[in-house]
Amino acid sequence: MKQISSSQLNREIIDLIQNHPEIDDFEVLAIDLSGHFYGKRYPIASLKSFASEGLAFPRSAIVVNTLGEPLEGIYYGEGDGDPDAQFSLIPGTLSVNDWGNKPRAQIMATASSGKEATFFEPRNLLKKVLQAYQTKGWHPTVAFELEFFLFSRKRDDQGLIQIVRNPKTGRPDSPTLLSNTRISDFERVIDNIIEACNQQNIETGAVSAEMGAGQFEINFNHHSDVMRAADETCLFKRTVIETAKKHGMMATFMAKPLLDQPGNGMHMHISVLDDKGENIFNAGNKPQQRLLHAIGGLLDTMPAAMSFWAPNINSYRRYSGGSSCSPVSLSWGHENRTVAFRIPLAKDGAWRVENRVPGADANPYLAMAVSLAGMLHGMNHRLDPGKPCDGSVENGDEYLPLSLSSALAISMGSEVLIDILGRDFIELYCQHRKADKVAFEQFINAREYDWYL
């Protein structure tokens, strides 16, 4: 398999150099625990040697805080002498971007598997869960859906973000749901986003104007390669942010940027195929019992999964403020957008579950890994999800943690997640999120003086 991957990567490099002789440098992109890219820029001449020999980054780069800074109390980087970890380039991720001052190549990298120091690398965590499915002859098929906001590039005098102005009318954007006019008015930036996705071999689907002013959603197609789907989601986030800059705007996947506007969600559609390519959730005109068991597992692990689906302080504002369809209860249902886990209409037996809980700020690899782990738990133990919810679900659930601290406490004690993801990882992840929260709180803002001075 490694020889095949190396051969594929070499062909990709040859094709890129032949088709783009103007490119003279490239970026290497890796993912940290917060779901952000880090890496370096290199001369194009280094690409072939990296493909065959790999390259090194400090392994502590995986566990920096949200701003990319070292965290106090984290062993990796603080107590281990900050050694390098070996990274490998990922075949199929070599592409071109043109949002800078010239076209530039980019390629993703992952910490080499089989090394103890890389057990906390996000791609390796998702790979570990997928291997648990493969032992049963099961293969998830997934699709991510992400909402994002476009804002004015300039903040107001108080440092607060401002609603983006319509490029064609000059007026602040209006929150008209499913408005074709809004899509047309923002078509230059939206078209550029889709073009940049095409350059990176990211297939996009429907485009919709969402419930917030300046809020849009661009969907992806269903993927039988779960890892590639998560890769594309991270690349898409970067693409939207960088393309918005070209148009004098600021883009964000922050879960709740404004209290009086809806939040940004990252909905995940998941089905599972067997070795014959058959959907194990399909029972003709109704879902197979396994799908209900999978939902039972999602419900059972939802409190422990919240710290992965909502990984920072702002994430929880999405569940408690403003108008939105963000689920706040242990619930499921058919064609019900107010529940946590929805069974959409199934055409031609395409039964699946939609996880509507995660925010767009979640790490796609970890959010998907925890979702799949919960589903596997439910199928293994044939968990009953209870009765579906038919009407709107608006009230919260007393068993659902709606703060980062309470969510982390439950994650730390989850034997289900520990069994699938490993105790060392769960402990490190919770420690990382706690340290990130502490670092965020080391600041006094003007409101504290207004209230307490």
Question: What's the structural blueprint in terms of helices and strands?
Answer:
Elements: H1 2-19, E1 25-31, E2 37-43, H2 47-53, E3 55-58, H3 75-78, E4 84-89, E5 95-97, E6 104-111, H4 122-134, E7 139-152, H5 180-185, H6 187-199, E8 204-209, E9 215-220, H7 226-246, E10 249-252, E11 266-273, H8 289-309, E12 332-334, E13 341-343, E14 353-355, H9 364-381, H10 404-412, H11 415-421, H12 423-441, H13 446-452
Parallel strand pairs: 1-6, 12-13
Antiparallel strand pairs: 1-2, 3-4, 4-6, 5-6, 7-9, 7-10, 7-11, 8-9, 11-14, 13-14
Beta-strand portion reads 15-25%
Number of strands: 14
Distance between the termini: 64 Å
Please, what is the average pLDDT?
Answer: 94
Spans where pLDDT lies below 50 across 5 or more residues? none
SS-derived structural category:
alpha+beta
Rg from Cα: 22 Å
**CATH architecture descriptor name of the largest domain:** 2-Layer Sandwich
Summarize the amount of helix as a percent range. 25-40%
Number of helices, counting only DSSP H or I runs of 4 residues or more:
13
Specify the biggest β-sheet.
8 strands, mixed
What is the helix/strand order?
HEEHEHEEEHEHHEEHEEHEEEHHHHH
CATH topology label of the largest domain: Creatine Kinase, Chain A, domain 2
- Could you name the CATH homologous superfamily of the largest domain? Glutamine synthetase/guanido kinase, catalytic domain
Query: What coarse outline follows from CA principal-axis ratios?
Result: globular
Q: How many distinct folded domains?
A: 2
Under CATH at level 1, the class of the largest domain stands as: Alpha Beta
